[in-house]
Structure formats: C-alpha cells, structure tokens
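Subject: Polyhydroxyalkanoate synthase

B.,
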Amino acid sequence: MADRSGDVISNPTTFQERADRTAVDSPESAVPLDHPLIAAALGPANRWLPGNAGVKFLDALAKRPDRVKTRVGKLVDELGRIVVGTSQLAPRPKDRRFSDPEWSQNPVLKRIVQIYLAADELAEGLLADAPMEWRDAERMKFVLSNILEAAAPSNNPLISPVAWKTFFASNGANAVAGPRNLLRDVASSPRVPAMVEPDAFRVGVDLGITPGAVVYRTEMFELIQYLPQTETVRAVPLLIVPPTINKYYVLDLAPGRSMVEYLVRQGQQVFMISWRNPEERHRDWGIDAYAEAVIEAFGVVDRITGAGSVHTMAACSGGLIACMAAAHRAQTGGIGELASLNLLVTMIDQNRGGVAGSLIDEGIAHAAIAQSQRTGYLDGRTLAEVFAWLRPADLVWNYWVNNYLQGRTPPRFDILYWNADTTRMPAALHRDFLLAALHNKLATAGGVTVLGTPIDLNAITVDAYVVAGSADHICPWTNCYRSAQLLGGRVRFVLSTNGHIAALVNPPGNRKSNYQVSEDLSVHARDWRAAAPTAQGSWWPDYAAWLGDRSGGDKPASAVLGNTEFRPLGVAPGTYVMAD
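Prediction pasted inline below.
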C-alpha cells in the first residue's frame, strides 16, 4: 500500500484499479493454490469478515484520531463539491463498469459514481493511515476490496443505465429473464453467476475430440492414446498429467485450440491421463496414490511404445504430483526412463506474501483439512466459487450485469465451460497439498516424503521445459520461476502472456500473444524478465521443436492403438471424463 497521507481525493487509484484489468500482472496480487483449497473447505463467508484484523484496524485508527478527522473532513468537502457539480472525480479510463456514456452525461448518475469513488478513496486512505502488521493490512485490504466491488453502482439494477436500456429495448424481457437466471444460479453450487450455459458444449462432440482410445484403466485413472495424424511419429512418446482439479480436456479443447491435437499433428506420440472424479469412498487417495498412478501410467506408455523412455508434461496440481513422482524415481534409480519433464503453470515453491499469505495460517489450514475429512472430499463446485471470487470484477460482477441486469445468457467459451465442469478432490489429497504448501515443504530437500522417499527436486537432472503465465492469479509466475530453479537439470523457462489457463490455451495464430524465453535461470526473476528476449506468437511451436529435438528419430506411424497386452477399451475421451 502506498503512503497516502497527503490529499487522498486528488488521485483516485488503488481499489479502483482492480476494475481496470482483466488480469493482474503482479505476483503480489496473485493467490497461490493453498488459499482456494482452504476457502473451498471452510466456505466463502470469510471473504466478507475481517476477523481479528478488523479489530486491529479499528484500534489503529482510534489511536490516530487526527488522521481520521482529516480523512473524513476531506470526504465531506468532496461530497460538497459533488453536490454542487464541481468535483473532478471520474472513473479511470479503463474502468469498464462505467463505460456507458450515461455514467458521465447524466448528472444524477455522475454524482452517484463520484460518491462511490470518494468512498473508495476514503477506505484506501484509512487503510494507509492504520499502522498494522502486513498480514492484518493485507487481510483488511482484501475484505474492503470485495465489499467495494460489490457496492459498485454498476451492479445496482435500479440505477444501471445498461439495465434500463436493455429493459426498453427488450420490452421488459430482461426483468423476467434476469431474476430467472438468478434463481437458477443460487439454487445450487457454485452460487455465482453462470459464466457459460451448461449445454453450451458437449464433451466428446465439441470438446475433447482428438481421435484416440482408452488403452488402460484403473480405479483411479484412464490412459488415453491418441491416433497418429502423420505418416511417421517421433520415437519417444509424451505422457500428459493433467490437473487433479477439473478435467483433462483443458489440454484438448475445441479443434484448432487443442494442444493435444497440435502435438499429434507435429508427429508426437501423445498419451493422456484422465483422472476419475473421486467419491466419498476414495477419501484416502493422497499424494502417494496419485504419484504411484503417474508412475504406473508411465510404465504402460513405455510398454506400449517400446521406446525405453517417456517425456512427461504436467499442468498445475498435476505438475506437483509429476515432480514428486519423478523425484522419487530419480532417488530410487528410475530417472533414466524419463526423457524430459515439462511443467505448465506449476508452482512448487509456494513462498508468498501479499493477500495469500495474509489469509493462511496453521489453524485455518487444519480446520479446512478437518472439514474435508468429514465429507471425504473437497467439492469442486465450491472450489469453482472460490476461484471466481479471486477475480470478482471479471468472474462475478461482470456476469452479474450480463446475466441478471440484462437478462442475457453468457457467451459460449470453451475455457469457461471446462472451468464449470468441476471435479471433487479426495480428502487425503486435499490434506497433503495443504500441509506441503503451508510450510513450503516441497521447496526444501526432504521436506515431503512420497512413497517412502524424502523428496529432493534437485535429483531431477533431465532437461525441463517450464511455462508460466505473466498474469496468472493462481500460480504467480515468479513462484513458477523459483520452482524451475529447484530442478537439477537444464531448464528452458517460458513466460507466456495471459493468465492461468489462457497462457496454456494459446494456439498459433493469435497475433496478440507473445512470450519470453531463456535458459539462464541464474538470476532473480525480475532480472530474468528484463533480459529474456521476447518472441511474438504462441509458445507451442517453440515447445514442439524443443520436444522434437529430444524425441529420437522417426518411425512409421501405426493405425492400431495399444498392443496385444493393452488393447483398446473404448474410444476417447473415455468414461471417467463424463462422470459428474
């Protein structure tokens, strides 16, 4: 927080800046994975409750009455200027909430916005004037920002010009459709405005349709092998380990936007794990079970292809599991079979400050663990609600206006459909992730034991390709960079534009995309970014070339999937991805 002890009215920033961005290119504003895992278990109510931080905030202000008096006095003065029409307060140019001309041209609406901005500035000023420990200050900032975003005039159906214009243009249809949409959304979790219609896409018809077959199935996962689309294929195959949160087809979205499709067309042999959506009876599936599953899938891929080695690509929470499995194999003599390790938006080093650090402590973490132990799993719908509230301006209030005030259906968007297609997380995995993150144990050699092995990521000496998103609000890119530095081999680090998922779903052809890439990770993240060259376009071709250089020679492609030991059990996308 900047020192705002001077004139707080003349520079309306900070809280208002949240609405200016669809994603924040700042590690301090991102929220690592452990916070959503805790909030999903304990419920979203704590977002509005400051707890002890609120008491400390009021106590700090009580000890500085002169500052409070000054702030309130300036607010009163500004309100006077607003009433007589001389106030210069105005929304920032990029604030989409007030982009309708009526907010600036209608004298009443203009004053309402100015009052809101003045209140926003007062809250910012009082927070700057209250000396507190960083944890309490960040907690109060978090709570106040959510309250202020909720209170924005643009969310009010009675005064929103967007709502009224839609009302007259539709002959009042939005007044019927909006409440109907609201009732539908609050009837079940996640209780946030729908970002996509539930029937907007169909898995196996619109999404996840790269041709392939399930060649292996266990209680925990299905293994999909994709059909070659080239006359020859690279000798060394690729196994993809998707996140354990949501479903695998984020990497096989619509044609033209599917990473699987792209890699297959580059001549790569591609296999995909499809995790089962766990139920209460799977409550004991923890990191050991998932790491063992990755190792098992790895072995099946090797036995089908006969390559002798396998590349492993893993994303987000799947990356954590793949790293632990790889380190276990390295420390027990099996790393020679791993051709390379490819990590996408994976945060191993979870050291953090900012909002996330202010919300997490050991007591809260253990309370969250106890809650998931009672149910046997963490409900993915609740987790989706928490993820939405991490970016409320874009993922809650934007759709509030569209769905309820305007009575519209949200646009079709494959990423948001995938985002809404949630899965559960077993209680044991929830526990293991939280305890590993709480004390940043994965970043310490021997801090976590997997399958009886104290894990040291430096033992992973194969080449690695690591991708982060510059605007990732879940896995900050600086943490991904520090995570890459923990590996023991040569690392190619790529910083892609966009956020957590859009950085991955980045097919060639998007002229707005670019990425930075360098293999020199000897410097601080800031210095790396300042020095790393920028390339225009998608990072996918760079990755395909890097992977191809490590995939051996070409061999004739086979039209037959599996082999005599592992015969196809059904067509892709399989059965596990279809389960609710």
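The CA atoms of residues 10 and 267 lie 59 Å apart.

T.
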